[in-house]
Design a protein that fits this description.
9-stranded mixed sheet, 2 domains, 10 helices, Ribosomal Protein S5, domain 2, alpha+beta, Alpha-Beta Plaits, 324 residues, binds cytidine-5'-monophosphate
Length: 324
């Protein structure tokens, strides 16, 4: 069972006050773009099938041993973009997703997962969340559960704030932690270049830095709301208007934690990007282009300027996790 799942970029990420549970209430305008990870799920013949670089995990057990019965575990392998940075133990969000789904369904977790990555790891494009969402869809089908999407969305929300959107896809406003989604009407298609950085940023650290900055400057944190200009630009497919109102409250914190990103953003603007911002908690930078050709030109220019590890193009909106 193979599921394809998109990356996201945040068109508006407005971070409200820190809540008692440590999370922040958000207005998060998510936009799914055509940069896809692929998760394939097989019934697991048992720990013997675990290849090199894989791991076998059961609930409460770090790695399954030779005495486990066949089909008693989750095994995972990862290929592609920065695959070596992805954990292969129980901290892998796709593994957590398989275990959570099995628990909900009251069955043993019996699956071998292969994740093919194109979405940057720890890049602010919700790659780990995407893999978790894809795993929910793949295992639901593989195990013949047929759970309604609303139930998958509920499990997704417990796994992480961005996981529900990877199921939902398209363009949506996320509130609460970002997990409560309302679809946003969009006309046409928007074209993007993404500058991928060396290494990643921890989402929790970037939020922490954002809190510290706000405290240091005494900034009054307003209750966030979705920008009318942004929603209007999306509704009519006006890339120029959209580019002018892209915003990300986490950007100052990401720029402090990863100073070279300021140059990356400047280089994109100098090459005519309609809008330039850090994607989510970074360090990937997103550039809105005038057209598909312009996105390619931008990506080439960003690479040539030496302000990123590599640059890719994508367009959105695209659907959420779906079986291929
Ligand atoms: O939900 P998720 O596990 O993806 O969140 C990762 C981290 O990002 C959280 O531990 C928290 O520090 C931060 N976060 C937050 N407010 C949100 C979403 C995430 O503070 N709405």
């Amino acid at each position: 069972m193979t599921v394809r799942v998109p990356a996201k970029v945040n068109l508006q990420l407005s971070v409200g006050p820190r809540r008692d549970d440590g999370y922040h209430d958000l207005v998060n305008v998510f936009h799914a773009v055509s940069l896809f990870d692929e998760v394939t799920a097989w019934r697991n013949p048992g720990p013997a099938a675990t290849g090199s670089g894989g791991a076998a995990i059961e609930p409460g057990i770090a790695a399954s041993g030779a005495d486990d019965p066949p089909g008693a575990s989750v095994t995972v392998t990862v290929e592609g973009e920065s695959a070596d940075l992805v954990p292969l133990d129980g901290t892998n969000l796709a593994v957590k997703a398989a275990l959570a789904l099995a628990e909900r369904a009251g069955r043993r977790p019996d699956v071998r997962l292969r994740i093919r990555k194109a979405i940057p790891v720890a890049g602010g494009m919700a790659g780990g969340s995407a893999d978790a969402a894809a795993t929910l869809v793949a295992c639901d089908a593989l195990w013949g559960l047929g759970l309604p999407r609303e139930e998958l969305m509920e499990i997704a929300g417990d796994l992480g704030s961005d996981v529900p959107f990877a199921l939902f896809g398209g363009t949506a406003v996320g509130t609460g932690r970002g997990e409560k989604l309302t679809r946003v009407p969009v006309a046409g298609r928007f074209h993007w270049a993404f500058a991928l950085a060396e290494g990643g940023l921890s989402t929790a650290e970037v939020y922490g830095e954002c809190d510290r900055l706000r405290e240091a400057t005494g900034e009054q944190v307003a209750w966030p709301s979705a920008s009318d200009e942004l929603l209007a630009a999306l509704a009519v497919g006006d890339a120029k208007a959209l580019g002018a109102v892209l915003s990300n409250d986490l950007q100052p914190a990401a720029l402090l934690l990863c100073r070279p990103l300021a140059r990356t953003l400047t280089a994109g603007r100098e090459h005519g990007a309609l809008g330039a911002l850090v994607s989510g908690s970074g360090p990937t930078c997103a550039f809105l282009a005038e057209s598909e050709d312009h996105a390619t030109t931008l990506a080439t220019a960003l690479e040539a300027a030496g302000v990123c590890r590599t640059a890719v193009t994508a367009s959105g909106p695209v659907p959420g996790a779906e079986i291929v």
